[in-house]
Design the sequence.
């Protein structure tokens, strides 16, 4: 059976190695656990300058950040819903990974999971801790 989840990566910056396949599996499992049927997600891994530009344009915040999510929720031409896009700063992910003492691939995975939860309609800035609890549970289930 074909994978019902299509996660497309665009690497403007790359950490080295082969992180795409494990990240696709993580994203697909997260989408499944969040109750999504067949769906698509686009992921851009870029630098601080690109993320800063996106953050300024779409959130009126003139600073880089670690991850941005852009919900879409429309049907693609083949009928599968396009859930949205994720943008991750590799530079910020590297700094955060170093500060936490974890591999950069793990930090990217954490950021991707966080963004997928946002694409699924959750918002830690507007809820009473539900997104944080959900993210903690999914991290334990998917990243340990």
Sequence:
């Amino acid at each position: 059976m074909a994978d019902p989840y299509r996660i497309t990566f665009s690497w403007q910056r790359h950490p080295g190695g082969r992180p795409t396949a494990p990240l696709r599996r993580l994203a697909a499992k997260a989408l499944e656990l969040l109750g999504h049927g067949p769906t698509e997600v686009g992921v851009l891994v870029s630098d601080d300058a690109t993320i800063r530009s996106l953050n300024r344009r779409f959130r009126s915040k003139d600073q880089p950040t670690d991850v941005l999510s852009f919900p879409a929720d429309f049907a693609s031409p083949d009928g599968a819903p396009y859930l949205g896009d994720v943008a991750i700063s590799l530079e910020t992910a590297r700094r955060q990974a170093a500060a936490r003492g974890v591999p950069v691939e793990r930090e990217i995975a954490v950021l991707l999971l966080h963004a997928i939860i946002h694409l699924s309609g959750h918002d830690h800035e507007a809820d009473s801790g539900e997104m944080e609890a959900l993210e903690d549970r999914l991290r334990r289930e998917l990243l340990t």
User: Anything to note?
Assistant: The CA atoms of residues 4 and 50 lie 30 Å apart. The first strand starts at residue 5 and ends at 11. DSSP finds five helices and four strands in the chain.
